[in-house]
Design a protein that fits this description.
Largest sheet: 7 strands, mixed
CATH superfamily of the largest domain: Tetratricopeptide repeat domain
CATH architecture of the largest domain: Alpha Horseshoe
Structural class: alpha/beta
Shape: globular
Strand content: 5-15%
CATH topology of the largest domain: Serine Threonine Protein Phosphatase 5, Tetratricopeptide repeat
Helix content: 55-70%
């Protein structure tokens, strides 16, 4: 991963057609997702809007260059991507992007892409690839892999999704986002935003149900489960809230998520001291974590420990009136806990504080730091072992449909060990998915030359099945089964070949 932080602003509408204003927000939405997949850290829309609000700027403002630099510096962004778009009478759209290197205060050359409005997603994907190549000329992922991302998403569904993002009221947001998921039920970003719209509208049952639709391996699953946990919390369903927060904290232990896990557990009468201590140690500068730990310690009868944490709270936030009152309460020795090790059931003190906000950018930063640790670990491995780990990660991405991320991992595996048969087989699968049969066949054959394997034979079988070369496809499926008799993909391929033979007769 590059680790560079990017701020991508909505593009300006230079078409003179007000009905096309929504397209401006389409650019940061797609560019964010593609550049995140390419290894950058793009600042999410929520964090961008927070920065605008913090600076007292209208949320729909098109900032000047000077204001853009100020916003970028506030967010510690390394680069800013901004631009404009226009159209002609043939519904052709031309987009122009510029990249500002914030530390150097230097603009790169214009990036231009033209295409049909009806193929907006493809147009922005192509622009995203060009932006990525300007940021990193050595970036190895093929342009076609960018085009595969959201390749089946219809423009009408995408328009309703973007209209839902920019709609002024929760009701309008829900209306557009419901239309988006009806037009394309497989578009998970629309389900996420629909759930968040329900949450903002305080329709917590619908928020929890909608956010629960995202697969657990979706890139937005952490955000979905954070707000699903918050929805259950507001409904008073603390068991489900704790489960949702626990899911997040086990995958990425951000202090706000760990804290909320502790709050939900405490509401269920559980001792959450260890959880609150984990949050306070992860971010000792946050007074709320010390306050919650103080409450939990006091519930367990540890007045001295609780007083110490309250004092830390007041050091960090001297005007905290609840902490001041709690300090006074703690200075009066409490009655002994009749059941040490369990919470005091008739607790008369304050309740723990829950964290209500989630920063997607912070999550990506934390994930990047974890990947850096993994990269250091991988760097100490022998080349073949390092390649095997990277291929395994690539396979996991590919199975989730994250083709761009998968190609990055396979290429890194082959950079580590060019004789990695699984690496070539993985890249062959990517090329097959990208619609480049010639390159896919070359990679699959290269894999088999190094070491015959079922994965590469299945790529060849799929290519031959698509070309109606049924005898070859049958033979390749048989080769795969000989190498791996229990391979479900090979068995499915044999059935697919038989069905196509029957249709041809």
């Amino acid at each position: 991963m590059h680790g560079h932080l990017l701020l991508i602003l909505p593009f300006e509408n230079h078409s003179g057609v007000a009905d096309l204003n929504w397209i401006g927000e389409a650019f940061p939405d797609i560019l964010n997702r593609r550049l995140n997949s390419a290894g950058y850290m793009a600042i999410g829309r929520g964090d961008r809007l927070y920065a605008f609000d913090h600076l007292g700027l209208p949320l729909n403002l098109q900032p000047s260059r000077a204001m853009t630099i100020r916003i970028a510096q506030m967010l510690d962004a390394d680069y800013v991507v901004f631009g404009s778009y226009t159209t002609d009478n043939n519904h052709q759209l031309t987009a122009q992007a510029e990249i500002l290197d914030v530390p150097a205060l230097r603009l790169g050359p214009d990036v231009v892409q033209t295409g049909s409005q009806d193929q907006l997603v493809s147009l922005v994907n192509r622009l995203a690839w060009k932006v990525t190549k300007q940021l990193d000329p050595q970036f190895a992922v093929n342009e076609q892999t960018f085009l595969v991302a959201d390749g089946d998403l219809h423009t009408d569904a995408f328009e309703q999704y973007i209209q839902g993002l920019v709609a002024p009221t929760p009701d309008d947001q829900v209306t557009h986002l419901l239309a988006a998921v009806k037009l394309d039920p497989s578009f998970d970003p629309a389900w996420l935003q629909l759930g968040l719209a329900y949450f903002r509208d305080e329709n917590f049952p619908e928020a929890a149900a909608t956010l629960g639709r995202l697969p657990t391996d979706d890139p937005n699953a952490l955000q979905a489960d954070f707000y699903r946990g918050m929805a259950f919390f507001h409904m008073g369903d603390y068991r489900e809230a704790e489960d949702a927060f626990t899911f997040d904290s086990r995958r990425l232990a951000l202090p706000e998520v760990v804290n909320n896990e502790g709050v939900a557990a405490s509401r269920r009468g559980k001792d959450a001291t260890a959880i609150f201590r984990q949050a306070a140690e992860a971010d000792p500068r946050d007074p709320d974590y010390h306050f919650n730990l103080a409450i939990s310690l006091a519930r367990q009868g540890d007045a001295a420990g609780a007083l110490k944490e309250v004092e830390e709270t007041l050091k960090l936030r001297p005007s905290d009136t609840d902490a001041q009152a709690f300090e006074t309460q703690l200075e009066t020795p409490p009655a002994p806990n009749p059941d040490p090790g369990h919470a005091i059931t008739d607790w008369q003190g304050p309740l723990e504080r829950i964290k209500k906000s989630y920063s997607d950018t912070e999550v990506r930063q934390a994930a990047f730091e974890l990947e850096q640790i993994q990269a250091m670990r991988l760097g100490s491995m022998p080349a073949a072992e390092r390649a095997a780990v990277l291929v395994k990660d690539g396979d996991a991405f590919f199975q989730r449909g994250l083709v761009l991320e998968a190609e990055r991992e396979y290429r890194e595996a082959l950079a580590a060990d060019s004789a990695s048969a699984p690496g070539h087989a993985g890249l062959a699968a990517v090329w097959g998915r990208d619609g480049n049969p010639r390159a896919a066949r070359q990679e699959a054959k290269a894999s088999i030359r190094i070491q015959p394997n079922a994965s590469a034979y299945l790529v060849l079988a799929q290519l031959d099945l698509s070309a109606n070369q049924l005898a070859m496809a049958q033979q390749e499926a048989a080769e795969a089964l000989e190498l791996d008799p229990n391979n479900a993909g090979a068995k499915a391929m044999e059935l697919a070949v038989q069905k196509q033979e029957n249709r041809s007769q």
